[in-house]
């Protein structure tokens, strides 16, 4: 089935209709060929392409495809990369690639993002915090509150003072706080096994066959 033409309205519809990151990535991937054929010489198409490539970039980050995100930035027309939004994407990619957590939060929170991009930026911030929390939980037996706060983009000065609100962010996840030693004891987070869609599809097919034979 032919895709509707890429436009700002269609881009908004695609983003709104794809709540799962993998679905968003797939939908935007389908539009990359159209994007490649659009001219970059008019203001309207430039704005559309900048918003498209920004959204496509975040769909890569939300599906943890960092190498592919780097490859995407090499496919984007050079004249578009001069836009504020895509310059921000390049800065964010560099920080993610180098695992510079404070820089990641600084780019996300302090640099200007277009109104259309902001929901994806906020979504990635939540995703990155959750991902980092799991990694820290499974990597440390004990950790200082300031270090944990830095990983999650929280107020390190408040954490150093043992701010109950900061400590509660971690104890709510099952971590234990040792006030005397001023240390947090993370609780490992067991990741759910990946869903095997091929197995599920095969089981559905078998059950359908059984139902047909039994009728």
Automatic annotation (TrEMBL):
Residues 51-190 form the CSN8/PSMD8/EIF3K domain. Keywords: Cytoplasm, Nucleus, Signalosome. GO terms for biological process: COP9 signalosome assembly; protein deneddylation. GO terms for cellular component: COP9 signalosome; cytoplasm. It is found in: Cytoplasm; Nucleus. It comes from the Eukaryota. The keyword Transit peptide does not apply. The keyword Transcription does not apply. InterPro entries: COP9_CSN8, CSN8_PSD8_EIF3K. This is CSN8/PSMD8/EIF3K domain-containing protein.
